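User: For a benchmark we're assembling, each entry needs the component sequences followed by a predicted structure for the full assembly. Here are entry 17's components. Please fill in the structure.
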Amino acid sequence: MTEIASDPDAALKGVADGATVLVGGFGTAGQPVELIDALIRTGARDLTVVSNNAGNGDHGLAALLAAGQVRKIVCSFPRQSDSWVFDALYRAGKIELEVVPQGNLAERIRAAGAGIGAFFCPTGVGTPLAEGKETRTIDGRDYVLEYPIRGDLALVKAHVADTRGNLLYRKTARNFGPVMATAATTTVVQVDRLVDAGAIDPEVVVTPGIFVDRVVVCPASTELAEEGAAG
Amino acid sequence: MTEIASDPDAALKGVADGATVLVGGFGTAGQPVELIDALIRTGARDLTVVSNNAGNGDHGLAALLAAGQVRKIVCSFPRQSDSWVFDALYRAGKIELEVVPQGNLAERIRAAGAGIGAFFCPTGVGTPLAEGKETRTIDGRDYVLEYPIRGDLALVKAHVADTRGNLLYRKTARNFGPVMATAATTTVVQVDRLVDAGAIDPEVVVTPGIFVDRVVVCPASTELAEEGAAG
Amino acid sequence: MTTATIEQPDRGPLTRTELAQQIAADIPPGSYVNLGIGQPTTVADHLAPDSGVVLHTENGMLGMGRAAQGDEVDPDLVNAGKVPVTETPGAAYFHHADSFAMMRGGHLDVCVLGAFQVSGTGDLANWHTGEPDAIPAVGGAMDLAIGAKDVFVMMTLFDKQGRAKLVPSCTYPLTGVGCVSRVYTDVATFDLTPDGVVVTATFGTTVEELRSRLDVPLLAG
Amino acid sequence: MTTATIEQPDRGPLTRTELAQQIAADIPPGSYVNLGIGQPTTVADHLAPDSGVVLHTENGMLGMGRAAQGDEVDPDLVNAGKVPVTETPGAAYFHHADSFAMMRGGHLDVCVLGAFQVSGTGDLANWHTGEPDAIPAVGGAMDLAIGAKDVFVMMTLFDKQGRAKLVPSCTYPLTGVGCVSRVYTDVATFDLTPDGVVVTATFGTTVEELRSRLDVPLLAG
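Assistant: Structure for entry 17:
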């Protein structure tokens, strides 16, 4: 049953030190900034963060890293033109990095949500990122065995939720949200807008409410809010 | 690139004897009856059919079985109140049956479409359907190793296609269609209606056109057509 | 979970309707629930309208409503038993792999299944009698058995020949191993716990009498 | 596939624009194509409007359009390089697991990638220099490398120090093994076939001259 939280702090009650947190977004698109800000305010430390990137600029995920709350980050592409916070922590030996090919990251998170124990995967065979991993040739093709990535907590940004927790996303901000929502003990979602149950066509629901524990409305920035009001 | 076929026979050109055919549908919901009828007319023999059920009544999949064109059926639930065609063939030893748990059927078809070589699955552990299969304990839970199910041909029923092959389905007639469309060398889809590219909101596409080789319009039965016209 | 056994020896066994009511009453409000084909489907009729229970049907839907009637019948909207149903506000459709991922990933709170046999350790046999002329058909039974946080079995405690269906070890082919958490029958309700089988209620019988008819050691809750 | 080599020794090497044009011209009409970050992205500018080529971006879209300008810029609509883009009629959005399943399942016809090195047998190195102070970042490179039916590499044939980037064996960390089918460079185009490396065109050089500068045996197409 999905709970509608009054604000991001209420939505993030009970995060423990040492938690593994799945954080949606591809760069800033779909990054749940208000939830990350609330995570910073919880003061939870020693976190493992799973996200495609390692923060951009000084806000959102980058701010969480700068606050020293993250012990390890699991991501596909940490280094970007604006990842100076991560870069400095990494070079100072203050954060652990596990690089995972982007497709493996997505599929391993899906596997956690789908009850798959492990899967043989074609990506990374013969590369340094498969070193030490079990391999197998199946039907003449080589595969690497990959394991699920589960979270204690998933932070996701969606566009619209109904009161049952059903979610719609917006354009390429969808990215990791739908798989991360399935793979955490507790999934918290920030949305631009909340509507009544029945207001979303059942044919177009992207994330069914069964995967959503808490929803909190964080109205979009001015530009988006105007766009939303227009249509 | 998706081809729009003029009729079901044109859509089914080139089916070889011995082909593995994935057939969508859950009972009659989503069963691509007009495509199956065209498959019967091709005269292709010695087929392996992968479908959730083994035919209902005397039409569609049941008619294909009755025509003696199917050597083997892979399904989760052959026996139904109206599966007399299959029942008689099976008891006469004229058709081979492989029973696969429904979730394994779906996930194995998905795996074929997603490039997964095999996966450790929790369903069926310790049951007769896992006998002889590789098992492994991962994080204290037992799993069975399951392999992909690929098709030479997939026959799928959807509701609406655009000229790019993007598909929408209707209610629970969606069932196996989206995964089967990803898992065959050639995917042929019958739809109630064809619309221009751009007429389907990109946010609500269920099967992107990349998975669809041929589309053919087979207007729905009278009742549905009336319903469609009304809204 | 153990609760004090309530013995009701002075009434008859539960009717099918009472059994369904009993199970419906034990499903926590707001749960996501899958009801198996056949008898378990009737549990839906007894869920309180304000329970917030969301029904899942493995052929691709959450928020399934009651059986369709008259003009509501739509061949594209059926439940796992292929019976036409309706949708409720807040429903969602999805494809089969997503639907079973939902089950297999442990996201359903409760599923209710029929059974030929259940063992004291929670093994379930409900898909195949194993008779030589039977056509095997498993459907989603094995996925449901391992997929819900709690698997409730709904059955008569004895078959027509009077043989117990709660057994030390299943003789029918298994559906799942150690997966059942609670057994609801016409004459008694059982919790299957790591400590053993706990009788939580009896109807028209006593724990003592059950002990004499079952080969499974019984604890009183 | 082999074609007769067209030697064009009397012109200069291809410019970046000519190289992108060359690749665009070789993409079959109606193909589903992923263009890697950086130089490969520019191939899109040279696809014929009626080519029917559909662009995939691994962050969850088919039918990606050109870069967004002015009011078109929407932070929720970006390509794999996080550059704002537009959508075309018939586009579709999907989540990351579906997007990469599409790649890994072999559904893309062509992907075009940059490279540090390519071996004569099609091994690709394009994600990591392996230098001790470099921060590793792989993104979708390894998935793209194994995921398309044809992987085209777009690069200069020699690095700034004049060292060949088409090599007998990659010295940089690998992205994928035996995955590259064609190499487009400023001075020559190569098909990597089971029989060996076939030169299909030269620009400002000859096959003979290339033989003297590369450690990979070259066949003339």
